[in-house]
Records
---
Amino acid sequence: MTIGIVIVAAGRGERAGSPQEGPKQYRFIGGRPVIAHTLQTFLDWHRSGPIVVVIHPDDEGLFAASTADLAKSATDIITTFGGDTRQRSVYEGLRALSDTGATHVMIHDAARPFIDLALLDRISAMLDAGHDGVLPAMPVADTLKRGGADGLVHETVSRAGLYAAQTPQSFALSEIRSAHEKAAALRRNDFTDDASIAEWAGLPVTLIEGSADNIKLTVRRDIEMADERLSRQTIRTSLPDVRTGNGYDVHQLVPGDGVTLCGVFIPHDQKLSGHSDADVALHALTDALLATCGAGDIGDHFPPSDMQWKGAASRIFLEHAAKIVRDHGGTIMNADVSLIAEAPKVGPHRESMRRNLSEFLDIDMERCSVKATTNETIGFVGRREGIAAIATATVVYQRD
C-alpha cells in the first residue's frame, strides 16, 4: 500500500481577512506560513508517499516562497492548479496523484496546520485493515438549535450520533477518484467534503476519533490564536531549562573531638553523630542536586542500613549525585550552602570549604558559596545540640 497525500490549498479564504493580506494558507503563524506547518507534518510522517499540493494559478510564487525552508525541497512535492470550487480542486489533485503509483490517498486542508502524526497513524491503520474510506471526526459537544427565518429557536437538535468532520479524509484512490468523476459528469458540485461524495457514491466511510487540536483556520481570529499558540511554544522551547533544587539536613552533636563540614575537619569539643562522617553540609547539597532531576534523596542511594557507608566520607555521596545530574544532561551552575550552628566558627574555614565544593562538583570556585549563621541561642541549634544545613543547587539541563 502506498499512501499519497493531496493538500488542498487553492482557496482564497475570504473570511480570514482582507485580500491584501493574502490567502490564509500563506499567512504566518509561529514565524512560518500555515501551509509550511501543514506540509512539514506530512513530510515527517514515515508513511507519506507522493505529495500533491493543489494551488491557485496566482499563487505559484507564494507557494515557492512558503515552502523554501521545508525539511525536503519543494521540488519533491507535485503541484497542480485547482478549480473554482474545493470539490474541483480535489479532483485535480486526485488526477495528478493517479500518475504516481499511489494506491490510497489522504485528502487534507492546507489550513489545518495542527494535524499530528498519531492521527495519521490511526487513519493508516484503518486503511491497512481494508477500510475503503476513513473519516476522522469529533463528537459534537455544543447544544444544537434549529432556528427559523423569524430569528427564533424552533427546536433543540439532539447531539446523539452527530460528529464534526475533520481531514485528512482517506480512501482507496481509485474509488474516490471514480466518485469524483461521477459527480463531475452529473455536474454535482454541492458536496462540502470528500466523505459526502463517497457516501453519495455508495462507498462505506468509517468514523475514527479525530483530534481536538486539528482545527481548521477559517477566520482572522483563528489565525491570530494559532500564531499566539505557536509563539508561546517557541518561547518555551527557546528558554533554557534551568532547575533549582533545595536540600536540608541536621545531625546531632555529641561529645567528641571535631566536626566535618563541607569536607573540612574542624577541631571542636563535640562531633556530629551519623552513619557516615555526618557532614551535614554535603548531605544537604547532595539532596539539592538530586532534586533537580527527580532522583530521590540521599537515603535512596546510600541507605544508613547499608554498613558499607559506615564512617564514609560524604564527598562520595556528593560526587555520586553530581554524576547522576550529568548523566541526565545537566550542567551544575551554582552550589550554595548555609550552615546553622552556634559553634564551631565557620568563617576561618570558608575558603577551604568552597575549594572542596569546587573540586567535588568540578565547577569554578566562584560558583560555590558557603555561609554560616547562628540560631541566636534558640532551639536545638541554640542549645548546641545539633547543626543544620540548607543547600541550594542550580542546574541547567539540555532540552530534548
---
Amino acid sequence: MPNKKKEPSSASKLVKGLEGVVAAQTSLSDVDGENGRLLYRGFPIGELVEKSHFEEVTYLLWYGKLPTTEELATFNETLKAQRPLSARALEVLKLLPTETHPMSALRTMCSLMGSLDPRAHIVNPEESQRKAYHLTGVFPTIIAAFYRLRAGKKPVEPDMSLSHAANFLYMLNGTKPTPEMEKALDAYLILLADHGLNASTFAARVTTGTLSNLYSAVTSAVGTLAGELHGAANQYAMEMILEIGKPENAKAYVNKLLDEKKKVMGFGHRIYKTRDPRAEAFRQIAADLCVKAGKTEWLEIAAHVEKVMMERKNIPCNVDFFSAPVLYVLGFPPDFFTTVFAASRVAGWGGHIIEQQLDNRLIRPLSEYIGPQDQYYIPTADRK
C-alpha cells in the first residue's frame, strides 16, 4: 500500500529564504530594520564612523569592548604583521589569468592561505582568532597585488607606518593617499564590517558549525558575498552610473528601467524598511571626497537617480549606492568593489566564526520534499 505523504508540522513550516526566522544569536551587531539603526556591540554606526577607525572597530567586534591605548597599540602591531604576502602565495597569484574576476581571485587566495598554514586544521577559538588576524591583515595586500598584476604593474609592498585604510590605498595606487581618501575608505570599512546574519555570514557560520576551520568558513563567505543579490550590488550600481554618463541622462534612464520592471541597483534592502543608516553615515563623506577630488559628476548623477527613485517608488538608497562613486574615485575599478567589501566584512566573519565555535551546534534545517512518491524501478531494456 502506498505510503501516505506526511503533512509538515507547524514547527517545520516552509519559510522561503528563511525570512523572519531566527537562526542564531549574536552580540556583534544589531540590525534594527524597522527604525533604520545599526549598532556594533551597542554603539551606533554613525558615532563609530565619526569618532573611531577600522582597527579599533575590529577590536570592538572581536573582543566586545573598546581597547585601551596599550591594547590598541598591540592590536595594530599584530594586524600589521599579517600584511605581507609570502613569496609562495604571490607566485600562485601571478598564475591566475588576468581575466579572472577579482572575487574569484580572492576566494582562491583565501583557500590558499589555509593550504600554507600548517595549523589550519586546528579548530578552536584561540586558533581562529590568530587566523582572523591573518586574513584581515592580508586581504588588502592580495586585492591590491592582483589589481596591479592585472594592470601589468609590480605589486607594492605594505607600508607599516600607515593605517589599515591608508596602506590599502598605497598598495593599490603606489602613492600615499590624502587624508580625505584615507577617511573615506576607513569609513567604508567600518560601515561594512558586520551586519547581523547576512547571507555570507550565515554561510560562514554554517561551515563553522561542521567544525571546519576558519579558512574554509571565510572561503565559503567570500563565495557567497560575490553574488549579485549580496556583495556585488555596489559593482552594478557604479556600472549603472557610468552608463548614465551625465546628470541630465539620469531621469530618462531610471524611468526606462522602472517602466520595464527592472531593478535599479543600490536601492532597497531586505531588512531596512525606512532608511539604511550606513548610507546616511556615508553621504557627507562621499560628498567631501568627490568635491576635493574634483569628481562631482558621479555624485550629481547619483543625486538625480535618487530623486527619481524617491518620487516614483519612495525607496531609499542603501549603502551600495553612495559607496560606489567613492570606491571609484579612490581608484578601485567596479569589478574590484566587492573585494573591498570582503576586506571589511572579514572582520565580522571572524567574530561570528569565533562566536559560533563558543556555542556550536550543527546548522541543519529541514527540507520539504515535493517530488514523486513510491516510484517503481524499471530495467533499462524495458523503459520507453
---
Amino acid sequence: MLKLDTVSRRFGNTIAVSDCTLTIPAGQMVGIIGRSGAGKSTLLRMINRLIDPSGGRIRFGEVEVSALKGSMLRSWQRDCAMIFQQFNLVPRIDVLTNVLLGRLNSRNTATSLLGMFTRKERAEALTALERLDIAEVALQRAGTLSGGQQQRVAIARALMQNPKMILADEPIASLDPRNAKIVMDSLKQINKSEGITVICNLHTLDTARAYCRRIIGMRGGHVVFDGSPEDLTTEVAQELYGADGLKDAFSESITSTSLPTGAPALARERANSVGPITEPIAAG
C-alpha cells in the first residue's frame, strides 16, 4: 500500500503540490487528471523520488520512501518503475538493449553499459517485447520506431525491473488515438494480469474513465477529487479544468481490448545471438 501524508513540493515561492494525502492499495489502476500545471507530474516524481518532497511523508508498506538514500533509494526506483511522455530511450542502440537497461538498478552498472547481459536476461527482455507485440523490432535502433512503438518499448523496459508499481507520466500525450489505445490497453493488461499498481497521469477525462476505476483530480497543486468514474460529473470536471479548459479535457473515447499475442520465433533466435554493445551509451 502506498501512503502519502501531507506531501508538498515548493519551487521557490511556487507551490507545485500542497498537502497531498492519499492511500492507494496494492493492485489499483489509478488515473490522475487535471490541467497542465496542476501538479500531476510533480506528484509522480516525488513518489519515485526523482525529486524530493519539501514536506510530508511517503510510505510504501513499511518503507518510508521519502527518507531513502543511496542503495536503498536505487532499490526503490527499481521497484517503482517510471514511464515518461517522451519515452527516454537511447535512440542509437537497438530495442532489445534498451529493454535490458531496465536492469541497471539491479546489477553492476559497468557490466550493463558494456552489454554483458546473460542469455536468460535476453530471453526475458524478448518475452516482454512479445507481450507488447513488438518482438519483431527487437534488433532495430530505437530511434527508427514510431512513437507508439517507442512507448511500448519503454513499458517493456519497465517490466524488466520486476516492479511493484508503475508510474506513467502522460504516457499517451504525444501519441495518435490508435497508438494511445494500444499503450493504455498494455498498461491495463499488466495491472489486471499481474496485480501491479499502475498510476497514470492523464490529460483527458474519457481515457481516465475508460481505464481507471479510481480517478484523482488535481487543481493548483491540490487534490480536489478522489472517486470513481461515475462520480466524475460535469460539475467536478468544470472545477478541475475551468469552463475555458473543459473542451480540451474530452477526447474520443477509447475502449480496452486485448493485444494480439505471439511474435516470430526468428526474432527470438536472432536476439539471443546478439553480442555485447560496442557503441558507448549516451543520451540524445
---
Amino acid sequence: MGAAPAPLFFANECLPLDRQDIELYHAGMNTKNSKYETCATDAAESWIRAQPHALRMEINLGYPCNNRCMFCTEIANRCGEKAKQAKDLLTTEYVMQAMAEQRRHGAQHVTFLGGEPTIRPDFLKLVKYARHDLGFSTVFLTSNGRMLARPQYAAALVKAGLTHLCLSLHGHTPELHDRLTGSPGSFEQLLTGINELRKLNFPFRLTSVINRINLSHLAEMARHQLELEPLRIAWAYVRPAGGALERMEEIVPRYTEARGFMHQAMRIFDEYRAIFTLAGVPLCIMQGFEKYCDELYWTNDSLRREVEKPGERLFISAGHGKIKNNACLKCSRVQICDGVPLEYAKKRGFEEFIPISGEKISDVSVFTDQRMKEE
C-alpha cells in the first residue's frame, strides 16, 4: 500500500473561549464568531480519528448515503469539493493503512461511520481486514440498515467479522420513518434486515434522532423498539447543524416543548427496565431521568465537561460544541452537565433552562446506572 496522503490524526476539540467569546455570550450571542463555525464543522472534516486513551478509532468512510434524512448534519457535504476530497482520500488502501497503523499503536476497537458505510463496494473487505487480519477485538458499524435486506448480506457481514451493530430507526411506522429519511421503503428494508439479524442470533442496537416531526410519537416509538428486542437503545436530540440548522423551526423543537414527550417515553423504558440512553439533552430537562443521560457515561478522558478560566466562572464542554451561561452556574448539576449546543443557544438563548437548586454535584455516579454502561 502506498503512503498515506494525509495525517491519520485529526483534532476534534473546540477552541478555548477568550474574553471576547465570554462577552459575546453574556451579551446574548448576537454576533457571529468564526471560531464557533470551526467547532461546528470539525467533525465533518475529521474522517479518521484516533482516541489513544481508550484504544479506539473511528473512521468516517465518506458522505454518500442511500437515505436523505432531513436532519442530516452532512447533507451539504454529499456533493461538491468536500465529497470529492473524501472519495479521493478514503481509498481501500488508505483506510486499511490507517487501521493497521492504529492497531500497531494498540487500538482494539474500530467504528465505521458515514454517510452509509455499507454502500461502499469494499466494505466487507474492510471489515474482514479489521477483524481477521488485524485482530481488532471490536468492529462496530453504525448503519441505516437498508443493505441488510439484501439476501445473504447480513450473513456476509457477520462472517466478515462484524462484532457490533447500531441501526438507525426514526419512527414506528413506514410513513414516519420514510418521511424523515426521505427514502420510501427504507422502514420495511430496515425491519427486513433486523429479521435477518435475529435469524443469525446477532445482537444489534437501535438509535433514533428526536425531532419535531417524530416528537409526539416518542412513546409509540419506545414500545415499538422494545418489541424488536435490541441489545440497547440510544436516542439523541437533533443537533442544529446541516439540514436541521437550515430548517431549524421545522425540525428542532425547543427543549421545553420536547420535555413532556421525552419523559413519557422514559417512563416506558423505566417500566421495562430497558438499557437506554439519551444524548444531547441538558440535565435540567432530564430531571428525574438523569440516569439515562448519555453524557454521564463518558469518561473524563473523552469528554471535558468543564473548562474554568482564571478569574472567570464560565463552564464549557470541550469537544462537543456546547456551552453554559451565567444562570447555569447556579444549577446544582453545572459541573456534570454537558450544556446546550452552541447553534441552539445562538438562536434561542437560555431562558427556557431553569437552574436546579441544591448542593453542587461533581460526581456523576450519583445518577449513573451500571446497566447503562457500554459493554
